[in-house]
Structure formats: structure tokens, C-alpha cells
Amino acid sequence: MTAHTPPTPPFRDPHLPFAKRIDDLLSRLTLDEKVSFLHQFAPAVERLGVAAFRTGQEALHGVAWMGPATVFPQAVGLGATWNEELVRRVGEAVSKEVRAMRARDERVGLNVWSPTVNLLRHPLWGRNEEGYSEDPKLTSAIATAYTHGLRGEHPTYWRTAPVLKHWLAHNNETGRDVTSSSVRPRVLHEYDLRAFRETVEAGAVAGVMPAYNLVNGRPNHVSPYLREHLRTWTDEELLVCSDAGAPSNLVDSEHYFDTHEEATAAALTAGVDSFTDHGTDSSKITARVRGALDRGLLTEADVDAAVRRQLSVRFRLGEFDPRHDPHAGTGEFDTPAHRALAQEAAEQAVVLLRNDGVLPLAPDTRIAVVGLLADECKLDWYSGTLIHRSTPLEGLYERFGAERVAFAEGVDRVLLKTSAGTYLHVPAAPEAADTVRGAEGALDPALLAGRTDLPPLTTDAGGTELAMADWGEDVLTLRAPDGRYLSVAEDGFLRASADQPGGWVVQETFRLEPHGNGHLLRHVGTGRHVSVTAEGVKVAEDNPEIFELIVVERGEDAVTRVAAEADVVVVVAGNDPHINGRETEDRTTLRLPAQQERILEAARAANPRTVLALVSAYPYAFEPGRLSAALWTAHGGQAAGTALARVLAGDVSPAGRLPQTWYADDADLPDLLDYDVIGARQTYLYFEGAPLFPFGHGLSYTSFGYADLAVAVEDDLARVSFTVTNTGEATADEVAQLYTRAVDPSVTRPRRELLAHRRLTLAPGERREVSFDVPLSAFTFWDVARGGRRLEPGPYDLLVGASSEDVRLRTTVTLDGDPAAPRPVLRRGLAAVDFDEHSGIEIVDRTKVSGEAVTPVAGGSGELVYRACDFGAGTTGVTVEVAGEGTVEVSLAGAPPAVLTLDTATAGPYDYTTLDAPFAAEGVHDLRLRLRGPLRLALVGFSG
User: How far apart are the first and last CA of the chain?
Assistant: First the structure.
């Protein structure tokens, strides 16, 4: 007898459309199997031959957390290139390394959680390094390029599946899981949604990740915007993956729901498809889903919808078609092309902020390179492990010769003397492998433990001289002579064991606290003081040691010596991405740490030809006029030092441009939690002060001329063209930028708004025409009176130049559009959230499911203005829909207000009631509302 081959199930048939195949596979899965797919770590279904799958592989600027990989510049550095074509190639290289690494390590996932498209609204945000720009147009352009590179160009199968982070209005680490971003409709549609929308509409996005915070009083993980906006932008199924631990936060920290079953059901029905919670342990999430099903909070159809979206991504990744997937078994890893691309990206990211002619450096220049970052190649939380490494010092040695380069780090060399008269001593370490944190990879690097294979610190009569660096806010690192940082492992002992500060909770930072005639040494990570015991030096709850700090050499003295002997001093300053400004921790100031300011001042005092090279994840405020030159680059990855040296030498003319405003002073900044970019005049779009350096700024070693501006408005496009000529003597890149400004707007509009840009390479004397087709929709704004976008008729300036402030050409065009119309409030009433102006007001959730209301901040008082309200032939009364308790005053200019008071508090914040009062008005007027007390206002209506 001949055995019959079982028929191929439809979900295995590559000739069928994905949708039919997913239908078939869903029909074969049991409810328990489908529920198991809802956790980040979905188990295999062996009876169907379906493999295990996990969502999430960090790949922000290279493959992260999984060991050695090519490390490209930080995302903010990629944004500074203003070069979509370059960033697309970076995304392509990263996705190829993902495939190559997965071929040898199945822990590496193909669902990549990147890029981050949160707008860099506030420069003190701890995660500034992860975004591309403060501008939504530039952010979406760079993000679209990166996602296209990650996706690949095959029409059916994706090389990796990118997920955008972090939905929505997420720019603070302070209280990030409990704070609410109050986002008015204009800011929502004109600013925060734009970067997501334009990137999703470009067609290379597999999903999004909601952020930890709340928006308008409602957690992002139960946001109706996922359904109302996100899923309307594409016909593709989008996979929504929760952020780590966020599903539990809905109950545990946010207290938005009473039970985890309610919270999980609400997140699932809102649109979350994959729950990242409790690490690899799926039991809690699956139990919550089953509990929600048992209570009738969920249906099987709800589960099916989420599983369908996950399966859609898995099919696109070729999981079920290994013989047809063009990416299966392919990949490139640490190739010469990837190394060259890392260097090219690092070079293109360098921004020349100021130059009095000292740069580029002549080949015979004697250089002193100084500063805490001069011999560092720093990584951040979302970096891979370095295979290759280049520091500024090494780059300058290589480019100019070691004999022409002197070095002083600028750290203080110190001894720590105990009350017993002995000194902290670092014992000689036994011969052991030189371990680098994270080199073996980890699904959750937060769980990596410190080393305990090295001997703890002791005390002796001579002591060990330590290199002490102050990274700001009195946060110190202490480094042993062999280059290892003092660190605390789980057993509490101090060891010289870390190659760099790092980890989810950094164990390599300390504070010296004055105590009597000495200091206590507090370990920041544990909050405990350092104690000397018979077993060794450790952190402990009691018996803290009182140390005398003996400074053997001040860092400024070493800097002064080498600076005085050099032709030029290069001060390399900036941040360590794991300290004072990172995920979980916002910065408190724009200023450089005091120790670095002292180093800079010592260098400048010893040698007026001082160049400041800032290597940082965010902007700083400093005095550029006292420097011969200043540059900025983000942490530039594995080739950072080589790239910086080549720019300093003039091998590459700098052409990076600032992707965000650099403010001159902390006083220029709004409150970190104020998300109203319009009302608070934030970012280059609305800021009315004088920036230290404007958005789009960046100098060159050559000069460029702009001419021949022409504009033609046809159909739904404005065709803008001009020429750019290299009028200097060096081949270089220029970034031509096109902005607009509404000349006579009826509402507050941006001072400048980027419409388009192009980075182009020009030889000396070369002239090239640049043209842009700008859709007229780019000139629209969100009209709260009509609840949609509107092109306001009238004149618009078109501004062409080298930055948002360096305008070389300008013209004005008059556009036809839709004239403003009064609000028909007598017929339609007013949604309280659709105000034109406000003070003392925040937006909150009308219900837990949908809608918005307004409330006075902290239960105080606030005002709202609604312009041009049409009361028709006349009104006789006003109604308000409110919850809580308090008073609403409704008035027209010069008339006494109608007062509506809710004396007795409603049962809860979502239990609305309607109040009414007489109110006479006719014709068109501005309407003013004053709110007092802890009440929520949802709607205002009029009768007549």
C-alpha cells in the first residue's frame, strides 16, 4: 500500500493571499492557543508546526542588546545628517545584520522596535538621543527612510518589521507612567500625530508601541486614537506592541482600572495586540485575558483581531514561506561596506556651530586634545556591543600622528583616606577574560548582573590613585589605573570591575557628601553609603566610612600644561549616555557639568585657540563667542573618533545641521510637562526669543550662493525651484531648506515651518537647480471651529536658505482657500476641548473609552476663549455638561456672566450632569468661560 501525503493546509500555500491564509490558521488554533499568542513571547504550536515568536528587537542605530554588531550614530545624530538616502542605507544595513545574527542566534527577533518618532520638543528630555528632530516634517522624512531600509524593497516579504515608538506625546521621564500630556486638538493634529502619520502612510511600518504616559488624562495603552487615527492611515494590518510593563501600570501605578482583567480587556479592545509584561513569563497576561473572557469583558472575536495582526506581520516576514522568502538565510554582518557606512554616517552627522577660521587644522598643527570624552567611545542603552572602536584621541593620533598630539583627560586624580588613616586600595586582579558588559547578548539587559569574580576593594597604607570625574549634579565616577570603573555587584562589595558605566540601574556612580571634616561616599544605585569591613569595602545600611578626599592632581592643571604647549586645543566635552539624562531620568539644566566647564575655561585661559567639540545626546548652553570654533555631534558609534578627526582636518567639510533648537539659557525653556507647543511658544516653530543656535544651523568650510527663486502654484501643488552654487574652494555638502510662514493668519501660526529640504554635494563652482513640489495641504492648519484642516486664503512667505534663520531668498505667494466661518454654536453647541485660547486649563478624559473634557489645573481656576461664535438670531439659555463640583461662568465681552454651579459633587469624575441658566446673545461674538473648582466640562450648548 502507498501512504497518502496529507494535503497542504491553506495557511501553508504560498499562492494564496495572506488574508486567506491567516483566516485558515486562525480557524485551526484553539482559544487557549490564540490567547497564548497575546504575550510578547508567543509559544510554538507544535501540532500545526507553528514556531515560537517574540515581538521586539531593539535596533535604533544598530542591532542592540544581542552582542557585537555594527554601531551607527545615535538617532539624533542620524537626524542631524538631514540625509534620507544615507539613513535608508543605514536601515538596510541594520536589517541585514538582524537577519545575519538571527541565522546564528534565534533570540534575535525580526520584529524591530524602531525608530523612535517622538518629537524632540524639549531638550531636557532624558531620551533626546532616541528621536530625530523637534520638527514633524524632518522627523517623518528620516523615519520613513529608516523604515524603508529596515523593511527592504521586496513587494511581498519584509526583511524586518519596524514598529514606531512611542505613541503619543511622550517627552518626559519624570513620572513618565503617571503624568498626563495635555494636548489640545491643534497640537495633536499639527504636531504630535504628524510624524507618526506621515511615516505610516509611507508604507514601511508594521506597527507602533504606545508610550507609558497618559494623553489628555487617558493612558496611551487604552487610547481611542489607535482606532480613530492610526488604523485609518493604512490598509495594512498594524501590530500594536505594549511597552514593557505598561499593561500592569494601568492598575499598579496609574490606578486607572481596579483589576488587571479590566485593564487587559480595555487595552486589547483599544487596539493593543501584543503584551510586553513580566519578561518571558506569559502566565500572568494569559490568566488576565482568560479572566476577562470569563467575565464577559472580552469576546473571542477581540482575541482573533489581535492575533490576526500579529500573524499578518509573521506572514510578511516570510515565516511560513521559507522557500519563497528572499531574505531567509541571507544577511550581512560587520562587512567592509557596513564599516564604511558607519564612518560616513558619523562624518555627515557632525555640525560646525562656530568657526573663526581656526578650522580646518593644518597638517602640521600641534594639537592638545583634552576632556572627559577625549578618549571615549560611549554607548547608550540601545546600542550593540562594539566590534570596532574609535575615540577622538585615537582619530587624531591616526590623522595627525601621535607625535603632534598631546592628551590630558582632565579628571581629578584622588586618594580616599579612611578615618583609620589607611587608603582605599584596588587589589591586583587575577588574570581573567576582559569582559565587556552585554557582549554575550541578553533578551533583557536590565537583568545583567555585575561581576563578582574580581576581588573587592580593600584598604592599605599606600592606597590606589583613582580618576574621579563629575558628570553633573555631583554624580561621580571613580576609575582604577587599569581603566576599570568602581562598581557594586549584588553582594554589595565594591570592585574595579566595569568597562564603562551602564545598565538599567547604573552601579558605577557615587556622590561625595560633606560630613564633619570629611565626606561620606554614597553609592547612587543602591542609595547606601560605602563602609569598610573586615571582608572588604562594601555598601551598607550602617557604619558608613568617613573619607578624607586627597586631590593628587586637579584635572585643570593637567589641561593647562598640555594646552599651553599646543597650537590648538580641542576640548571634547559632553555626556555619558547612562548618567544624568537617559531613559528614566530627565536633565535638570542645559549647562555643561561644572567640572567640564572648568576644563574648558582652563584650556581657553592657557590657549585662546580653543575648539570645543561637544559629543552629546542633547543640546547644551555655553558661550560660543569665547571659542575659536565649536562643533557638535551625537555619540557617533564605532567610527566617531575617526569621523571627528577627519572633519577637524578638513578631509570632510562638515554639513550636519541641527535637528532642534539650541536655547541660550534654561530660562528660555517651558516647563517639561507643558506639551502645548503653540501656547508655550516651544520649538523653532513658535519660539520668539533669540536661540543660541537655530534649527537647521550648521556651517561649512566653503560658501554657497542661492539664486533664481521661482514659484508656480498649479492644481494642488506649489512648485518651488532655486539654484545653489558652491562659491568656495572645497567640495562640500549643503543642506538647502525651504520654509513657509503665513503672513496674516487669523490664529497663531508658526514663525517658520519646514516644507522641504535637500542635502546635495557640490564641487567648487558647481551650480545646481533644486526643486520641490509642495502639496498645498502643507499650508493648512487644524481649524477647531470645523474640526478639520483648513487652507486659509491669503499671503504666505516662502523662505529658502541654510537654516531656519539664515534666509537667502524669499518671495510671497497668495493662495486660495476656505475662508473662516463662525462657529454655529446655536445649532451644534461647543465641545469644550475645541478652544482657541486657554490659561490654567488641562485636558482630561471625558470617559475611560473616548472623548475629552477640560478642567482647571489642580482644581483651581482657568479660562477658555472660543472665537467667532455665531448665536444666530438670539439665544435664551446655556447648558453645560459637567462632572465633579464647581462653577462655570459663561460670558461675552462687556456683559455679566451666566453662572452655573454644581454644588454637590457627582458620584465620580465620569458621572456627568447638565446644568442650565438664562443666557442672551445674538450675532457673532467671542465667548469666554471661567471654570472654578475640581470639575470637568465636556459640552456647552445654547437654546433660543
Answer: 89
- Dump pLDDT digits (tens) for 741-791: 999 999 999 999 999 999 999 999 999 999 999 999 999 999 999 999 999
Who's near 301: CB < 8 A, 6+ residues apart?
Answer: none
Whether 402 contacts 439, CB under 8 Å: no
Q: How many CB atoms lie within 10 A of CB 451?
A: 17
Alpha-helical (H) ranges within 446-577 are 555-564
> For the purposes of burial, counting CB atoms within 10 Å of the CB of 432, is it exposed (0-12), middle (13-18) or buried (19 or more)?
exposed
8 Å CB contact between 462 and 423: yes
Give the max Cα distance, the chain: 100
The answer to whether 666 touches 589, Cβ cutoff 8 Å, is yes
CA distances from 135 to 112, 115, 347, 866 (A): 24, 15, 22, 28
C-alpha distances in Å from residue 797, one per residue of 594, 712, 748, 792, 816 = 43, 13, 15, 14, 14
With a cut of 90, say whether residue 525 has pLDDT above it. yes
Q: pLDDT of 669-696, one tens digit each?
A: 999 999 999 999 999 999 999 999 999 9
Which H or E run includes 97? helix 84-104
Alpha carbon 299 to its chain's center: 36
Position 840 scores a pLDDT of 98
CA 526-529-533 angle, 5° bins: 115
> For 752-901, where are the alpha helices, taking DSSP H only?
825-828
* Residue 569: its H or E element: strand 568-574
- 214-215 and 546-553: which strand pairing? unpaired
CB count within 10 Å of CB 206 equals 28
| Burial of 673 (C-beta count, 10 Å sphere; 0-12/13-18/19+) | middle
Angle at 164 between CA 162 and CA 169, to 5 degrees: 180
Tell me the pLDDT tens digit for each residue of 69-125: 999 999 999 999 999 999 999 999 999 999 999 999 999 999 999 999 999 999 999
Task: Determine the residue type at 524.
Answer: V
The pLDDT value given to residue 272: 98
DSSP sequence for 782-812: EETTTTEEE---EEEEEEEESSSS-EEEEEE
Tell me the residue length of the chain.
944
d(CA 249, CA 284): 14
CB 648 within 8 Å of CB 642: no
Average pLDDT estimate for 312-341: 96
Q: Which residue has the cell 500625530?
A: 193
Q: Are strands 207-210 and 239-240 parallel, antiparallel or unpaired?
A: parallel
Rounded to an integer, what distance in angstroms lies between the CA atom of residue 391 and that of residue 638?
A: 8
Spatial separation of the C-alpha atoms in residues 34 and 50, rounded to whole Å: 12
Cα separation, 766 vs 328, whole angstroms:
45
d(CA 126, CA 472): 14
Task: Say if residue 583 is exposed, middle or buried (CB neighbours under 10 Å; 0-12, 13-18, 19+).
Answer: middle
Amino acid at 598: R
% of the chain residues with pLDDT over 70: 99
Closest CA to 361 of 625, 624, 628: 628
Cα–Cα dist 809/161, whole Å: 42
**Prediction pTM value:** 0.97
Q: Round the CA-based radius of gyration of the chain to a whole number and report it.
A: 30
Long-range contacts of 891-896 (CB under 8 A, 24+ apart): 891/927, 891/928, 891/929, 891/930, 892/921, 892/925, 892/926, 892/927, 892/928, 893/925, 893/926, 893/928
Tell me which residues are annotated as active site. 243
Instruction: Please report how the helices 640-649 and 336-348 are oriented relative to each other, as an axis angle in degrees rounded to 10.
Output: 50
Residues in Cβ contact with 550 at an 8 Å cutoff, skipping those fewer than 6 apart: 414, 415, 416, 417
The C-alpha cell 508655550 sits at: 680
Is residue 438 a contact partner of residue 474, using CB atoms and an 8 Å limit? no
